[in-house]
Amino acid sequence: MSKFTSMEDKLGLDKFTLFHQTHLKIKDGFKTGEAAKKLVNDKLFICPAKVYTLNEKDEVVVSFENCLECGTCRVAAPEAVEWEHPQGGHGIVYRLG
Amino acid sequence: MGAEEKFDVIVVGGGPAGLTAAYVMAKAGLQVVVLERGDYCGSKNMFGGIFFTNVLRELIPDFEKDAPLERVVTKRRWSLLTPDGEIGGGFKFSKFAQEPHNNSYTVLRAKFDKWFSEKVEEAGAMILTGCVVDGFLKDEKGKINGVKARMDDGDIYGDCIILADGVNSLLAKQLDMHRELAPESTIVGVKEVIEFPEEKIKDRFGLNDNEGVAYEYFGYAAKGAIGSGFIYTDKTSISVGVGGTIKSLMEHKLNPNDLLEWFKNHPAIRPLVNGGEQREYAAHLIPDGGYNRLSKLYKDNVLVVGDAAGFVNASLFHEGTNLAMMTGKIAGETVIKAKEANDFSEVMTARYEHRLRESSAMKDMKKFRHLAHVLDTTPQLFEKYPVIMEEFVRDMFTVDGESKNAKQMRLVMRLLRKENPISFALTGLKGRRVII
Ligand SMILES: Cc1cc2nc3c(=O)[nH]c(=O)nc-3n(C[C@H](O)[C@H](O)[C@H](O)COP(=O)(O)OP(=O)(O)OC[C@H]3O[C@@H](n4cnc5c(N)ncnc54)[C@H](O)[C@@H]3O)c2cc1C
Ligand code: SF4
Hints:
Structural class of chain A: alpha+beta
Shape of chain B: globular
Shape of chain A: globular
Distance between the termini of chain B: 49 Å
Strand content of chain A: 15-25%
Number of strands of chain B: 17
Strand content of chain B: 25-35%
Number of helices of chain B: 15
Mean pLDDT of chain B: 93
Distance between the termini of chain A: 23 Å
Oligomer: heterodimer
Number of helices of chain A: 3
Largest sheet of chain A: 2 strands, antiparallel
Structural class of chain B: alpha/beta
Largest interface: A-B, 41 and 59 residues
Helix content of chain B: 25-40%
Bound molecules: flavin-adenine dinucleotide, iron/sulfur cluster
Radius of gyration of chain A: 14 Å
Largest sheet of chain B: 9 strands, mixed
């Protein structure tokens, strides 16, 4: 069995250079309530870094600092995700790749 | 960047496609700048994988002297996974251990792309890292004459722009050249690099010296979703990963990391990857749409290369790096000609597509153009058929005293009861045509 299996553990293996501003946004109409629940449970659960979660108020929480910048979310839910690259030199820094 | 400074060519993206284009053009004396958003070239890039070095060898014949190569791939294996079994076959050729090493090396991209970028700098190109490009500059006539980078004094001017910004290519999209990535033909892949002592790797995979393996897994490798898995050996680590189309993973409610954990614990995989020290977890997309979803490749002053244009052969051959380099090289050579003629309009950039059509890159893309569609419309290849296959092969090889003839008869009859033979045969043919 691998030592690290949870998302938190896995992301802990990686190097990130944090930028203070998010590069991922949820569009209006998908941020809370039923639409938010549907978005996360049907689509954005697929994020390989589990960046998108729901809080107890059914709002989408975007942990952009964990983003691996793959683009899966923008293909899975283009109607709801506003996606850009993070600031140059920031975000994920693969040391092996 | 000073406003007076102007380049012949701006290359956006420092992966294999962009770096190859830049290398070729810098060698010919053009003023070239590569803009890369990562902290260094390679810092945003991951793949399986095998780096196919046929084009690299043309550019830098002695690359084996100092490139960060992991292992020569002499052993390949393709397996059909079932929920808890494996049916497979492959080859191991010691000939491939000799020059030119079948042009197949495992590499780790963060190291490899960085090395390549240093070669490109030596060739005379300028490389600006930490520089993300957000859009284009246009002159008063509306002609594209530069790019906008997200930094102070970020307006950078050039006669020609090569878009090598990879699978998500937001830039080709801005110019309406890119067909948007579709969930059914875009694969998300995740992998882990797990470190082991060198001897352990050699023992586990039966390898001499610097030989390496590529094991690829189909069928039920993505737990019934449309996808596949892999194991590659590096020098002192193994790369293990799995991927599936975004559409299919959503339908099967599979998160890629959970899927990777399942894959690593599959009875056929676990003994190969168990133990060691996990070093990195990475995720990346693969444009799997094939020939039918290639982007528009050129317009006035702009060419699109590599993943940005959709150049990946996702059949059994799993090629992307060599297509990236081949398209980068041909684009670079096209721009050299355009510079000679001092004409960067479509009249000249169109030569890129004309030459590509003659190249093996395009011919291979064409050959496998139905792949994505066939996979998307044949889910039984990933869920039902692996199970039927296993039952058949397992029973065939079960030792129980039944005569071989009786066994064969019984198994064929059972198969026919389970599956319409015509549709089974047709699916088999369809599958073969897109895979090999
Ligand atoms: C899981 C997986 C396994 C694979 N296995 C193999 C394999 O075994 N063999 C093989 O040959 N191929 C494989 N591939 C495919 C291969 O990795 C790609 O085809 C290849 O890397 C494409 O090269 P590229 O230069 O076009 O794009 P990339 O390597 O993606 O480079 C694009 C570059 O552009 C930069 N960039 C993007 N946007 C901007 C911007 N706006 N401004 C500045 N810079 C920007 C990025 O940071 C990146 O460095 C695999 C891919 C994946 C995901
Ligand atoms: S880009 Fe990839 S890692 Fe980042 S939020 Fe989207 S799916 Fe998750």
